[in-house]
Write a structure and sequence with these properties.
Residues 176-262 form the DUF6534 domain. The chain is mainly α. It has helices spanning 2-42, 48-78, 91-94, 96-119, 124-155, 166-193, 199-232, 240-272. 39% of the residues are buried.
Length: 330
Amino acid sequence: MATLEVTTQALAETMGAIQIGVLFNSFLFGILFMQWVSYFTSKFNDSWPIRALVFWIIAVDVSHVAVSWQYIWMYTVDQFGNFATLYAAHWQYDTSPIFIVLTAVPTQMFLVNRTRKMLGRQHPLLANGLFALVTVLGIIQLVLGLYESFSLLITVKSTAQYAKFIPIAVAWESTAIAADMTVMLSFIATLVYRRTGFKQTDWMLFNLMLVAVECALPVTLFTIGHIAAVINSPTTGMHQLFAWSQARLYSNTLFLNLNSRNKLRKGQESTHGTSGNVKEVNFLSIDRHGISSRGGPQVHVDVTREQSYAMDDISSKHIDPDFKPDVGHV
């Protein structure tokens, strides 16, 4: 009877947690697939680095999800009824840190580079300092994540041995949280700083802030959950409730930011009451007071475009040429 109770608990804490984690990961993959469809059907005029990042993230996501499905197949088909499998280490899960860091670090660098471009004209030292900080944090979590994954693959044979890698896992995940928070807070602060007082401009900025919060919170919560589960229950599958979905959440962050340009475009069209002749908005072509460096008073908000981050055409109407903005008031 005691053996049955231990086996039941092991099934719940390992097989049950793994199934929920992989199923939720598959659910996120379905949402992410729709994000891909939205991105490619929107025909954004993105530069080749952005397109390369997009295809890289897609390749990593497809590979990781395929590994997770093979993982479930192993438990429920190949090793069905073999309780020793519950206590063994498996390469499918041990490779998860590789997939996570290969998704997280490029996404973080992409987002902080956008902030650097928006902030760089007025405060280049601050912009470059933030970029350098996130770059260092990205390198640290990349090294720690790869080290942990390869160490697990080479040395660990059973779940009991996972405990000795807790310090590395905590250091890696803590660094990831620090990078995510730095990216989110710096981006929101930059958007708040760039408010102009114009209704259309501030509406766009507010929506970009919402996107930043919506993207950062799920990733941060899952990372914290992963750390807590690893510390409290390293020899069970409880930490896999969170681990399988972390990479998908980073991918969703990237595509949600890219696809948010559709919402901004539609919002401008509805604001102006136009349906065509959409012109390009370059958030990086304006100064602090909303005056375009290309000449003529314009209201622009900087979201995405310079040469390495293309912003799809969003309507931007010229203000009356005789209108002179009150720069001091703005």
